[in-house]
Amino acid sequence: MGSLLCKRHPAWHLIRTWPAGTASTPKLQLQALLPVVALSLLDMKILLVFLLGLAACPVQAQSVAPKPLTSEQVARQGQALNAQLSGYQTPIEAWVVHKGDTLQLGRGARNDKTFVHAYARPQRTKGRAKAMPLAADYSGKEVIVDELTIAPNQAGESTLYGVFAVGGRTYQLAIEPAIKAGELLPPIKYRPSAQASPALPVVVADELIKLKAQLAAGTISEAEFEIQKKKLVEH
Q1: What is the pLDDT of residues 166-207, one digit of tens each?
Q2: In total, how many domains does the chain have?
Q3: Is 18 domain-assigned?
Q4: Which 3-state string (H, E, C) describes the chain?
C-alpha cells in the first residue's frame, strides 16, 4: 500500500508510524486509511474543477481603442497616419466621423450651387488632372462613408477625406473644410438649432419660414410647429 503513495501523502505517514499490533490485518489497515484517501481525492477533484474553470475562461487582454485623429495631426503627419486611421474628430467635440457613417450634405458653396469640397477623384485628361465637383442636385442628400483617407488637397496640403459613391462615380469630401463651408451638416443632435444652422438646404429653410409665419398668424399651434419643424429638419 505504501509503495503506491507519495512519501508526502498523509497516508504514507500513517503507514510508517502504525503502532505494532494495531489493525494488523490488511483489511483493517485499509479501512483506517479510507477517510484520509477519500479526503485527498476530494481535494484533487476540487483542484481539477478549479483548473478546468480557468481553462474555460481565459483571461483576455484588454485592448485600447485608437483615438480618432484631429486636423492638427493630419496636417502635421499627413499620409503616414492612414495605417492608424479609425475615425476623425471634427471641430464639433462630440462628433467623430467613422467609416460606414451616414452623412448629410448641406448645399454647394459655389455660385452655381455645386460643391467646392466634394468632387470626383481627379482623372487625368490629356496630361492634366481634372476634378469634377459634386452637382447641386445632391444638396441636402445623405451619403455613406465608404472609406476615410488622408491625401493632399489641390493646394498640396494633407487633408482628411470621406470617400463615397453616388451616380456611378466615386467622390471625396474634405470633411473639415466642408463643415466650415456648410457643405456638410453635423448630425441633428449636434446642431445648435434648426434655424441657427447656416447650411440648411434652401427648400428646408423656405419651409421653416412659412411655418414660422403660420405660427405668428395663429393658424398652427406651437406643438404643430415643432412637429412640422422636426419632420423638415430630419428629412
Answers
A1: 999 999 999 999 998 889 988 888 876 644 454 555 556 667
A2: 3
A3: yes
A4: CHHHCCCCCHHHHHHHCCCCCCCCCHHHHHHHHHHHHHHHHHHHHHHHHHHHHHHHCCCCCCCCCCCCECHHHHHHHHHHHHHHCCCEECCCCCCEECCCCEEEECCCCCCCCCCCCEEECCEEECCEEECCECCHHHCCCEEECCEEEEEECCCCCEEEEEEEEECCEEEEEEHHHHHHHCCEECCHHHCCCCCCCCCCCHHHHHHHHHHHHHHHHCCCCHHHHHHHHHHHHHC
